[in-house]
Amino acid sequence: MPILANATKAVTDRMPKVISPGVHAIIDYAAAGTFFAMGALFWSRNKRAAVSSLACGAAEAITAATTDYPGGVVKAMSFTTHGRIDVGLAALVSSLPGLMKFTDEAEARFFGMQAIAMAGVTGLTDFEGSGRTKQLKRLEKKAA
Predict the structure, then answer these.
(1) What is the pLDDT of residue 68?
(2) CB 8 within 8 A of CB 120
(3) Which of 7, 67, 72, 127 is the most buried (most CB within 10 A)?
(4) CA-to-CA distance for 97 and 66, rounded, in angstroms?
(5) Residue by residue, what is the 3-state secondary structure of the chain?
């Protein structure tokens, strides 16, 4: 994950958790919609960025739809598992320009900004329902 996205995650993990599961669901669907819209916008000028954006949109939408929170459709995974996936998805989003070889193109900035936003939202979300800080560290330890 780029340094700025890592720094965002580190800073927000120390802050009080102010984003509820319902608000997180709205943000997830908005992020998925943004990825889909940008994929359509990128399609005529950069196919690699467009495919990357569409894949991220699909991953975000599927994760949101299968989470046990308000807005989830299937409720197949817990909200804490969703949090662990969000951390990994933010890392994936930030690394896609390098993996798909469009790092030096203007479209790469979109992925960097989305990764920072995703890390920030994930860091400020109350996954445990406690409002306590450092939830991401506890989620990462459980995953390891």
Answers:
(1) 95
(2) yes
(3) 67
(4) 27
(5) CCHHHHHHHHHHHCCCCCECHHHHHHHHHHHHHHHHHHHHHHCCCCHHHHHHHHHHHHHHHHHHHCECCCCCCCCCECHHHHHHHHHHHHHHHHHHHHHCCCCCCCHHHHHHHHHHHHHHHHHHECCCCCCCCCHHHHHHHHHC
Residue 64 CA to residue 77 CA, distance in Å, equals 10
The answer to whether 137 touches 128, Cβ cutoff 8 Å, is no
Q: Tokens for 134, please give them.
A: 């450092």
The closest of 32, 87, 41 to 64, measured between CA atoms, is 32
Per-residue pLDDT tens digits of the chain, which is 144 residues long: 467 666 776 777 778 888 999 999 999 999 999 999 999 999 999 999 999 999 999 999 999 999 999 999 999 999 989 998 998 999 899 999 999 999 999 999 999 999 999 988 988 898 877 777 777 777 667 766
pTM, 2 dp? 0.87
Distance from the first to the final alpha carbon of the chain: 18
pLDDT of amino acid 2: 62
Residues 76 and 98: their CA atoms lie apart, in Å, by 32
